[in-house]
């Protein structure tokens, strides 16, 4: 399986220009014979939307832009980020990610953990998602997370327990603090999660972050791919746009789970019982 992580810089509020960038990137990925191209969080709209949220919101069943991306997914799978507002839920806006393949939407994930502190203010404008689900694709079972979701390791565990073989994270993570390696110190946090979740979930981890500037925020880039043994296969540059392309040997999933039987020995029923007890105790 060949994947492309499209580390791009979306234009704030400009769906037309952002769609053009998607189409250009998808065309390039198709010529490179890629199977899947992954774009960052809110790739169709930009991140720091604030009062633009309502203006750029799209119903995935009615949006002409999403319909065009669905059509293109007949040739190459596409993951992209957008602001979702369904006709059945008027006035509720979600920070969402769509997975399209074979000309249709296979899954939409709504961001569950919405950061609202410091420079982050997502809960002011978005409703939280309520679930993490694994879904079938032409390349095996996959799961989606959006940015902060990935830093809550219970999210990765739910995908792992559900049988995910590939975890896809789309992100708009700003860079904070400089590291000795020339990147952001905050990028190390994401890389550690990628390594740990790849290793102990025995799944591929695809993390696609954006770059560029918005309202004083500098987005870090540094997109990466980890394999089911926690080995980093590829990483994009910090700061700069890049199309990171990587072949994935899906047989590595079987090999990892055969050699280290974490998945075989997992006991989600024990986790469920313990969580029920913890939640009950919190209510007392």
Summarize the structure in words.
The chain is α/β, with parallel strands linked by helices and 284 residues long. Helix content is 29%, strand content 27%. It has eight helices and 14 strands. It has helices at 15-31, 53-56, 64-72, 153-161, 187-201, 251-259, 262-265, 268-283, and strands at 2-7, 36-38, 77-84, 94-101, 104-110, 134-137, 140-146, 166-171, 204-209, 211-214, 217-220, 224-226, 232-235, 242-247. It has a six-stranded mixed beta sheet with strand order 5-4-3-2-1-14. Strands 6-7-8-9-12-13 form a six-stranded mixed beta sheet, with helices on one face. It has a two-stranded antiparallel sheet with strand order 10-11.
Quick structural gist:
The chain contains eight helices and 14 strands.
């Amino acid at each position: 399986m060949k994947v492309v992580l499209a580390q791009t810089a979306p234009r704030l509020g400009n769906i037309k220009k952002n769609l053009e960038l998607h189409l250009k990137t998808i065309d390039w990925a198709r010529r490179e014979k890629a199977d899947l191209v992954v774009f960052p969080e809110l790739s169709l709209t930009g991140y720091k939307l604030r009062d633009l949220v309502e203006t750029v919101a799209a119903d995935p069943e009615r949006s002409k832009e999403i319909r065009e991306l669905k059509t293109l997914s007949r040739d190459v799978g596409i993951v992209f980020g957008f602001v979702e507002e369904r006709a059945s839920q008027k006035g509720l806006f979600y920070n969402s990610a769509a997975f399209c393949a074979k000309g249709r939407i296979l899954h939409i994930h709504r961001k569950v953990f919405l950061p609202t502190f410091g420079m982050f203010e997502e809960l002011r404008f978005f409703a939280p998602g309520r679930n993490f689900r694994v879904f079938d694709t032409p390349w095996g079972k996959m799961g989606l997370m959006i940015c902060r979701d990935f830093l809550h390791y219970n999210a990765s565990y739910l995908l792992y327990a559900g049988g995910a073989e590939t975890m896809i994270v789309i992100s708009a993570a700003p860079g904070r603090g400089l590291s000795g390696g020339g990147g952001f110190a905050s990028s190390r946090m994401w890389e550690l999660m990628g390594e740990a979740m790849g290793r102990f979930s025995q799944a591929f981890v695809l993390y696609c972050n954006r770059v560029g500037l918005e309202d004083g925020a500098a987005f870090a880039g540094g997109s990466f791919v980890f394999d089911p043994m926690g080995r980093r296969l590829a990483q994009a540059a910090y700061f700069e746009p890049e199309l990171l392309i990587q072949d994935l040997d899906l047989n590595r999933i079987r090999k990892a789970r055969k050699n280290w039987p974490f998945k075989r020995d997992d006991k989600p029923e024990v986790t469920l019982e313990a969580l029920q007890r913890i939640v009950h105790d919190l209510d007392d």
